[in-house]
Amino acid sequence: MFRALYLEKGDPTPLVAVHRVEHARLTDGDVTVAVTHSTINYKDALAITGQAPVVRSYPMIPGIDFAGIVEESDHPGFKAGDPVLCNGWGLGESRWGGLSTLARVSGDWLVPLPKGKTAAWAMALGTAGYTAGLCVLALESVGLKPDMGDILVTGASGGVGSVAIALLAHRRYGVTALTGKLDQEAYLKSLGAKSIKARDTYELPPNLLGKERWAGVIDSCGGVILANALSETRYGGVVAACGLAAGMDLPTSVAPFILRGVSLLGVESVYANLGRRIKVWDRLAHDIRDDLLDTMVETISLGEVPAAAKRLLTGQVRGRLVVDVTA
Q: Where does 127-266 sit in CATH, by number?
């Protein structure tokens, strides 16, 4: 038996509880991992609360991330005792995920834990930090450099935003943090933000084109916030879009693209190939100071996850939620 956060179909929201589950019920795969840490991302919170149709079938163990130690392996790349992490690949959506003390997956989905790093470190970053890393790579893939101008990071006090600020500041970009939590100014500046901008200034209907401000943008919000960011991106600038916290719509025009040559790059984290994943995790291991990461993290137990998911969706969480599934 193993312990897991277990979702069953309910009306109108899922039934959520910590259950003991039989080992034989694990989903298929060639590697079994003894999970020690997981995390709660925005998508996990939507699944747990039922506020969006994230879960494809019930019962489900949520959690799109996990980290731990290989227990059994029939995969040539891994052996018992190897420290690993996993994120994406339908975990917590179409197959049982990481909010559990045991997980079975394809070894092709696993990433070796960077040398000298722990499972708790990996989940302090999780999909949010990994996505932030993908966003920085996206900006740099089109030639963006620190001397080209400032970068706007939306949703700045959230998981993606917090890690994005720290990554960009480490690489000497000038970062402006867009946030609805102006009381978090000291926290955001400790991560490396040069200045703070109030989110409500980006919640108004956008002009076709605004004043040119940003050489680049990392956006985890979507909606009118992304539209405003696009309208203020400089000639030849680039915007990496990775989230929908403010909505799935995009009320903009072609003006930023055809009059300023702005590039809008979509960042997808679920099915990125292994080479790209290893590159991002290696960069996270190198560029994020452990003491800085500690300031972003709140650690909770498996039983505290349902309440924490509600807090996350109502904007009451700063940074990252790490789940010690053994607690």
A: 3.40.50.720
Which residue in this structure is represented by tokens 């498996």?
302
Cα separation, 189 vs 231, whole angstroms: 25
178-221 confidence digits (pLDDT tens): 999 999 999 999 999 999 999 999 999 988 999 999 999 999 99
Do the beta carbons of residue 142 and residue 265 sit within 8 Å? yes
**Rounded distance between C-alpha atoms, residue 3 and residue 29, angstroms:** 19
Q: What region, left, alpha or beta, does residue 81 occupy, with left being phi > 0 and alpha being psi -120 to 50 degrees?
A: left
Class of domain 2-113+296-324 as given by CATH: alpha beta
Query: Looking at the DSSP assignment, which residues form a beta bridge with residue 95?
Result: 91
CB 325 within 8 A of CB 36: yes
Tens of pLDDT, residues 1-21: 999 999 999 999 999 999 999
| Terminal alpha carbon distance of the chain | 16
